[in-house]
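Project standup — Tuesday

K.O.: blocked on the structure for the chain from last sprint. Re-posting the sequence here as requested.
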Amino acid sequence: MLSKKQEKWLREGRGQGELADYKPWIKISDISSSGRSHRVFGHKTRRTHHLLSDLELATFLFLEWSQEIIDIREQFPLKFDETLQIAENMQVKHPAISGNTHVMTSDFYVVSSDKELSQFVLQAKYSKDLMKPRIIEKLEIERRYWHSKGIPWQIITEKDIPIVIQNNIKWLYPESNSRVTFNIEEKLDFYIDQFSQSPSKSLIDLCKEVDRVYFSELGASLNEIRKLLALRFFTFDIFIDLRRLKCSDIHISNSNDYSLITEEMLYVSNQ
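H.V.: unblocked you, prediction finished:
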Protein backbone atom coordinates (compact mmCIF):
# COMPACT_ATOMS: atom_id res chain seq x y z
CA MET A 1 0.00 0.00 0.00
CA LEU A 2 1.02 3.60 -0.52
CA SER A 3 1.80 6.04 2.24
CA LYS A 4 -0.72 8.77 3.03
CA LYS A 5 1.65 11.30 1.50
CA GLN A 6 1.79 9.43 -1.80
CA GLU A 7 -1.99 8.93 -1.81
CA LYS A 8 -2.30 12.70 -1.39
CA TRP A 9 0.05 13.26 -4.34
CA LEU A 10 -2.13 11.00 -6.46
CA ARG A 11 -5.19 13.07 -5.58
CA GLU A 12 -3.27 16.25 -6.44
CA GLY A 13 -2.65 14.91 -9.94
CA ARG A 14 1.09 14.66 -9.60
CA GLY A 15 2.80 12.96 -12.49
CA GLN A 16 0.03 14.04 -14.82
CA GLY A 17 -0.34 16.77 -17.44
CA GLU A 18 2.10 18.15 -19.99
CA LEU A 19 4.14 21.29 -20.59
CA ALA A 20 3.09 24.02 -18.13
CA ASP A 21 0.35 21.80 -16.62
CA TYR A 22 2.64 18.92 -15.67
CA LYS A 23 3.18 18.32 -11.96
CA PRO A 24 6.33 16.37 -11.02
CA TRP A 25 5.81 13.47 -8.65
CA ILE A 26 8.53 14.77 -6.33
CA LYS A 27 9.12 18.45 -5.60
CA ILE A 28 12.13 19.87 -3.82
CA SER A 29 9.95 20.96 -0.90
CA ASP A 30 8.98 17.29 -0.36
CA ILE A 31 12.47 16.13 0.56
CA SER A 32 14.03 16.73 3.96
CA SER A 33 17.39 17.86 2.60
CA SER A 34 17.60 19.75 -0.68
CA GLY A 35 21.35 19.11 -1.02
CA ARG A 36 22.37 20.00 -4.56
CA SER A 37 18.80 20.41 -5.75
CA HIS A 38 17.73 23.11 -8.20
CA ARG A 39 14.56 24.90 -9.22
CA VAL A 40 14.93 26.07 -12.81
CA PHE A 41 12.48 27.89 -15.06
CA GLY A 42 11.96 25.99 -18.32
CA HIS A 43 11.38 28.05 -21.44
CA LYS A 44 9.97 25.08 -23.35
CA THR A 45 7.39 24.24 -20.69
CA ARG A 46 6.86 27.68 -19.10
CA ARG A 47 7.09 26.25 -15.60
CA THR A 48 9.58 25.55 -12.84
CA HIS A 49 11.40 22.23 -13.01
CA HIS A 50 12.41 20.40 -9.83
CA LEU A 51 15.84 18.82 -10.23
CA LEU A 52 17.43 16.80 -7.45
CA SER A 53 21.13 16.88 -8.38
CA ASP A 54 23.73 18.72 -10.42
CA LEU A 55 23.63 15.87 -12.91
CA GLU A 56 19.87 16.26 -13.34
CA LEU A 57 20.41 19.98 -13.88
CA ALA A 58 23.07 19.34 -16.53
CA THR A 59 20.81 16.82 -18.26
CA PHE A 60 17.88 19.23 -18.16
CA LEU A 61 19.91 22.04 -19.72
CA PHE A 62 21.16 19.67 -22.40
CA LEU A 63 17.51 18.82 -23.23
CA GLU A 64 16.36 22.42 -22.92
CA TRP A 65 18.98 23.51 -25.45
CA SER A 66 17.97 20.94 -28.09
CA GLN A 67 15.58 22.34 -30.69
CA GLU A 68 13.99 18.92 -31.22
CA ILE A 69 12.82 18.59 -27.61
CA ILE A 70 9.20 19.66 -27.08
CA ASP A 71 8.40 18.70 -23.49
CA ILE A 72 10.45 17.69 -20.45
CA ARG A 73 8.69 16.00 -17.52
CA GLU A 74 10.99 15.42 -14.57
CA GLN A 75 10.42 13.08 -11.60
CA PHE A 76 8.00 11.06 -13.72
CA PRO A 77 6.14 8.34 -11.75
CA LEU A 78 5.87 4.72 -12.83
CA LYS A 79 2.63 2.81 -12.21
CA PHE A 80 3.33 1.05 -8.94
CA ASP A 81 1.13 -1.98 -9.62
CA GLU A 82 3.23 -2.71 -12.71
CA THR A 83 6.60 -2.17 -11.02
CA LEU A 84 5.46 -4.39 -8.12
CA GLN A 85 4.75 -7.17 -10.60
CA ILE A 86 8.11 -6.70 -12.30
CA ALA A 87 9.93 -6.85 -8.96
CA GLU A 88 8.05 -10.02 -8.07
CA ASN A 89 8.99 -11.60 -11.38
CA MET A 90 12.62 -10.63 -10.78
CA GLN A 91 12.40 -11.93 -7.21
CA VAL A 92 13.80 -8.71 -5.78
CA LYS A 93 12.42 -6.28 -3.23
CA HIS A 94 10.38 -3.38 -4.56
CA PRO A 95 11.45 0.04 -3.22
CA ALA A 96 9.58 0.79 0.00
CA ILE A 97 9.71 3.31 2.83
CA SER A 98 8.59 2.36 6.34
CA GLY A 99 6.73 -0.63 4.99
CA ASN A 100 4.83 1.38 2.37
CA THR A 101 5.24 0.89 -1.37
CA HIS A 102 7.46 3.61 -2.79
CA VAL A 103 6.38 4.89 -6.21
CA MET A 104 9.37 4.64 -8.52
CA THR A 105 10.22 7.56 -10.78
CA SER A 106 12.26 8.19 -13.90
CA ASP A 107 14.25 11.40 -13.90
CA PHE A 108 13.04 12.59 -17.33
CA TYR A 109 10.21 11.63 -19.64
CA VAL A 110 10.95 13.53 -22.85
CA VAL A 111 8.79 14.32 -25.88
CA SER A 112 10.59 15.10 -29.14
CA SER A 113 9.68 16.29 -32.62
CA ASP A 114 11.95 13.57 -34.05
CA LYS A 115 9.58 11.12 -35.76
CA GLU A 116 11.97 8.22 -35.13
CA LEU A 117 12.34 9.05 -31.44
CA SER A 118 9.15 10.88 -30.48
CA GLN A 119 9.47 10.00 -26.79
CA PHE A 120 12.16 8.56 -24.56
CA VAL A 121 13.13 8.29 -20.91
CA LEU A 122 16.40 9.19 -19.18
CA GLN A 123 17.62 8.18 -15.75
CA ALA A 124 20.51 10.33 -14.50
CA LYS A 125 22.97 8.43 -12.33
CA TYR A 126 26.53 9.20 -11.27
CA SER A 127 28.85 6.52 -12.58
CA LYS A 128 30.02 5.57 -9.07
CA ASP A 129 26.45 4.59 -8.15
CA LEU A 130 26.31 2.06 -10.96
CA MET A 131 28.62 -0.15 -8.90
CA LYS A 132 25.96 -0.62 -6.19
CA PRO A 133 23.96 -3.88 -6.53
CA ARG A 134 20.73 -2.46 -5.07
CA ILE A 135 20.75 0.48 -7.47
CA ILE A 136 21.29 -1.92 -10.36
CA GLU A 137 18.23 -3.90 -9.22
CA LYS A 138 16.04 -0.80 -9.17
CA LEU A 139 17.34 0.33 -12.55
CA GLU A 140 16.49 -3.08 -13.99
CA ILE A 141 12.91 -2.77 -12.71
CA GLU A 142 12.71 0.61 -14.42
CA ARG A 143 14.27 -0.68 -17.63
CA ARG A 144 11.79 -3.55 -17.87
CA TYR A 145 8.90 -1.19 -17.16
CA TRP A 146 9.69 1.06 -20.10
CA HIS A 147 10.63 -1.87 -22.34
CA SER A 148 7.13 -3.28 -21.78
CA LYS A 149 5.71 -0.01 -23.10
CA GLY A 150 7.99 0.15 -26.11
CA ILE A 151 9.53 3.43 -24.97
CA PRO A 152 13.34 3.86 -25.22
CA TRP A 153 15.05 4.15 -21.84
CA GLN A 154 18.65 5.07 -21.14
CA ILE A 155 20.96 5.80 -18.23
CA ILE A 156 22.90 9.04 -18.49
CA THR A 157 25.97 9.73 -16.32
CA GLU A 158 28.25 12.71 -15.80
CA LYS A 159 30.54 11.16 -18.43
CA ASP A 160 27.85 11.73 -21.05
CA ILE A 161 27.57 15.47 -20.34
CA PRO A 162 30.23 17.59 -22.12
CA ILE A 163 32.69 19.11 -19.66
CA VAL A 164 32.00 22.63 -20.98
CA ILE A 165 28.36 22.29 -19.93
CA GLN A 166 29.37 21.04 -16.49
CA ASN A 167 31.77 23.95 -16.02
CA ASN A 168 29.19 26.50 -17.16
CA ILE A 169 26.69 25.12 -14.70
CA LYS A 170 29.17 25.18 -11.82
CA TRP A 171 29.76 28.88 -12.53
CA LEU A 172 26.19 29.92 -13.19
CA TYR A 173 23.84 28.05 -10.95
CA PRO A 174 25.02 29.02 -7.47
CA GLU A 175 23.47 32.35 -8.50
CA SER A 176 20.10 30.90 -9.47
CA ASN A 177 18.85 30.79 -5.88
CA SER A 178 20.53 33.89 -4.46
CA ARG A 179 18.73 37.16 -3.81
CA VAL A 180 18.50 39.81 -6.56
CA THR A 181 19.80 43.15 -5.29
CA PHE A 182 19.26 45.27 -8.41
CA ASN A 183 16.43 46.39 -10.68
CA ILE A 184 16.15 43.64 -13.27
CA GLU A 185 14.48 45.64 -16.03
CA GLU A 186 16.96 48.49 -15.74
CA LYS A 187 19.91 46.12 -15.89
CA LEU A 188 18.45 44.24 -18.85
CA ASP A 189 18.05 47.45 -20.82
CA PHE A 190 21.53 48.60 -19.86
CA TYR A 191 23.33 45.40 -20.84
CA ILE A 192 21.32 44.92 -24.04
CA ASP A 193 22.60 48.32 -25.11
CA GLN A 194 26.16 47.41 -24.13
CA PHE A 195 26.04 44.12 -26.04
CA SER A 196 24.69 45.80 -29.19
CA GLN A 197 27.50 48.36 -29.15
CA SER A 198 30.27 45.77 -28.87
CA PRO A 199 29.04 42.48 -30.40
CA SER A 200 32.51 41.11 -31.14
CA LYS A 201 33.95 41.89 -27.71
CA SER A 202 34.28 39.09 -25.18
CA LEU A 203 31.89 39.20 -22.24
CA ILE A 204 34.76 39.35 -19.77
CA ASP A 205 36.43 42.30 -21.55
CA LEU A 206 33.12 44.16 -21.78
CA CYS A 207 32.53 43.72 -18.06
CA LYS A 208 35.99 45.02 -17.22
CA GLU A 209 35.34 48.08 -19.37
CA VAL A 210 31.92 48.71 -17.81
CA ASP A 211 33.40 48.48 -14.31
CA ARG A 212 36.13 50.94 -15.26
CA VAL A 213 33.83 53.49 -16.98
CA TYR A 214 31.22 53.44 -14.23
CA PHE A 215 33.76 53.30 -11.38
CA SER A 216 32.36 50.01 -10.14
CA GLU A 217 34.16 47.40 -8.12
CA LEU A 218 36.04 45.00 -10.39
CA GLY A 219 33.75 42.08 -11.19
CA ALA A 220 30.50 43.88 -10.33
CA SER A 221 29.04 43.87 -13.84
CA LEU A 222 30.11 40.27 -14.48
CA ASN A 223 28.28 39.21 -11.31
CA GLU A 224 25.12 41.00 -12.48
CA ILE A 225 25.23 39.33 -15.88
CA ARG A 226 25.94 36.01 -14.19
CA LYS A 227 22.76 36.44 -12.18
CA LEU A 228 20.70 37.38 -15.28
CA LEU A 229 22.08 34.37 -17.15
CA ALA A 230 21.42 32.00 -14.25
CA LEU A 231 17.82 33.20 -14.02
CA ARG A 232 17.46 32.85 -17.80
CA PHE A 233 16.63 36.49 -18.50
CA PHE A 234 19.59 36.25 -20.83
CA THR A 235 20.29 33.02 -22.71
CA PHE A 236 23.25 31.59 -24.58
CA ASP A 237 24.36 28.34 -26.17
CA ILE A 238 25.28 26.20 -23.16
CA PHE A 239 27.95 24.49 -25.31
CA ILE A 240 30.03 27.70 -25.44
CA ASP A 241 32.62 28.07 -22.69
CA LEU A 242 31.68 31.13 -20.67
CA ARG A 243 35.29 32.28 -20.73
CA ARG A 244 35.03 32.53 -24.53
CA LEU A 245 31.56 34.02 -24.67
CA LYS A 246 31.15 37.07 -26.90
CA CYS A 247 28.51 39.75 -26.51
CA SER A 248 26.88 38.58 -29.74
CA ASP A 249 26.43 35.11 -28.18
CA ILE A 250 24.11 36.46 -25.50
CA HIS A 251 20.43 36.85 -26.30
CA ILE A 252 17.49 38.30 -24.46
CA SER A 253 14.78 35.82 -23.56
CA ASN A 254 11.41 36.13 -25.20
CA SER A 255 9.86 39.24 -23.60
CA ASN A 256 6.65 37.28 -23.05
CA ASP A 257 8.56 35.24 -20.47
CA TYR A 258 9.56 38.17 -18.25
CA SER A 259 6.51 38.14 -16.04
CA LEU A 260 6.58 34.34 -15.83
CA ILE A 261 10.22 34.22 -14.77
CA THR A 262 9.72 37.01 -12.24
CA GLU A 263 6.68 35.25 -10.82
CA GLU A 264 8.67 32.03 -10.49
CA MET A 265 11.41 33.91 -8.63
CA LEU A 266 8.86 35.26 -6.17
CA TYR A 267 6.87 32.10 -5.55
CA VAL A 268 9.21 29.23 -6.27
CA SER A 269 10.02 28.72 -2.58
CA ASN A 270 6.40 27.73 -1.98
CA GLN A 271 6.45 24.90 -4.51
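K.O.: great, moving the ticket to review. Strands lie at 38-42, 47-51, 69-77, 96-97, 100-101, 105-112, 119-124, 153-156, 234-235, 251-252. Residues 163-270 form a domain with the Arc Repressor Mutant, subunit A fold (CATH 1.10.10.10).
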